[in-house]
Amino acid sequence: MAALAGALPPPRVARHVRFRDPESSEELDDGVALWFPAPHSVTGEDVAEFHVHGSRAVLAAVMAGLSRRGLRLAEPGEFTRRAFLNDKLDLTQAEAVADLAAAETEAQRRQALRQLDGHLGGVYRGWGERLLRLLAHLEAAIDFPDEDLPPEIEREVAEGARALANEVESHLDDGHRGERLRDGIAVAILGPPNAGKSSILNQLARREAAITSPIAGTTRDVIEVAIDLAGYPVVLADTAGLRDSADVIEQEGLRRALKRAEEAELRLFVFDATRPEDAQGAAAWPGPDTLLVANKIDLASGRDAPPLARAIPVSALTGEGLPKLIAALSSRVARSYDGTAPALTRARHRQALETALAGLRRSLAADLPELRAEDLRLAWRSLGRITGRVDVEDLLDVIFRDFCLGK
Question: In which order are the strands placed within the sheet that holds 47-51?
Answer without folding.
Answer: 15-20, 27-36, 47-51
